[in-house]
Specification:
This protein has 284 residues and is an alpha/beta fold. The protein has a single domain, classed as Divalent-metal-dependent TIM barrel enzymes (TIM Barrel, Alpha-Beta Barrel). The chain has nine helices and twelve strands. The strands form three sheets. It has an eight-stranded parallel beta sheet with strand order 3-2-1-12-9-8-7-4. Strand 1, helix 1 and strand 2 form a beta-alpha-beta unit. Helix 4 packs across helix 5 and helix 8 runs parallel beside helix 9. The protein is globular and about 50 Å long. This is DUF692 domain-containing protein.
């Protein structure tokens, strides 16, 4: 990574947790166990009644906003009002980068209502490059994009997801948020080798990772954010830490919260230890 690369200026953040109000008190009491927090941007948009809560979080922790509604792959221009609200949250947190999903959430006149995978074509890539550049210019910081789960491959793609990511980061200097659980889930549901997938990805552009636990439903592995991280995901992370100097890890847990929040903090600590060992190897 060259010195002028905007990703090179991103500091090491450590291991953290997705901020969820259901465990707010436990998070407040665990400043020694959580290196940084990830907030869902949309929860702090709009009215100013959440400003105090956001300010309190930022006083205690380094905070990275993570959006779910940008629709970075949309062919239509991005919503200017939405982008201004994103910028406000980004500025208030002082985050070194902003993260979102490589996905569609809107098409003209329709809110899809979920994170839909992109069609990996030349026109889609051109639109995504245009949108990433606009967001980064507005925010004045790198955009870091996450791989999503998908129920089926969109047919007639002109390139693989890994090639799409590679060409996108080359054109924009954006980064990657690798959701290790999403990669595992996709590899199980669509029968491919996740290690081979990583070999094709521009892993040097991975800034942060996500970890979570899912569940089985009708023979499909679902990204539920509701269970402990699966052993296979830890194994995949162990491989990844030998490839790239990760800046941070976030454990996502949105449902089925354990009675003892320490179960979550133990997973945060495990990720921290693995990333620290990997950084020592990669930097040696």
């Amino acid at each position: 990574m060259r010195a002028s690369d905007p990703l090179a200026r991103i500091p090491y953040l450590g291991s953290g947790l997705g901020y969820r109000r259901q465990i707010r008190d436990a998070i407040r009491a665990a400043t020694d166990e959580i290196d940084f927090l990830e907030i869902v941007t949309e929860q702090f948009m709009g009215s100013t009644d959440k400003d105090g809560e956001l300010a309190e979080i930022c006083e205690r922790f380094t905070v990275i906003p993570h959006g779910v509604g940008l629709s970075i792959g949309s062919a239509a221009p991005l919503d200017s009002d939405y982008l201004e609200r994103v910028r406000r949250v980004s500025d208030r947190t002082g985050c070194p980068y902003y993260s979102e999903h490589l996905a569609l959430t809107q098409v003209p006149g329709i809110d899809i209502g979920h994170l839909s995978p992109l069609w990996f074509t030349e026109p889609a890539l051109a639109c995504t490059i245009r949108n990433v550049r606009r967001v980064q210019d507005l925010l004045g910081k790198p955009l870091v994009l996450e791989n999503v789960t998908y129920q089926f491959d969109i047919p007639e793609a002109q390139m693989s997801q890994a090639e799409f990511f590679g060409r996108l980061v080359d054109a924009t200097d954006c980064g990657i948020l690798l959701d290790v659980t999403n990669l595992h889930i996709n590899s199980v549901n669509h029968h491919f080798d996740p290690i081979a997938f990583l070999a094709e990805m521009p892993v040097e552009r991975i800034v942060q990772i996500h970890l979570a636990g899912g569940f089985w439903s009708d023979g499909i592995l679902v990204d539920g954010h509701s269970e402990q991280v699966h052993p296979e995901v830890w194994e995949l992370l162990a491989h990844l830490t030998g490839l790239v100097d990760l800046r941070g890890s976030i454990l996502e847990h949105d449902d089925n919260f354990p009675d003892d929040p320490g179960v979550l903090f133990q997973q945060v600590a495990r990720a921290r230890e693995m990333i620290s060992r990997g950084r020592a190897r990669v930097q040696a």
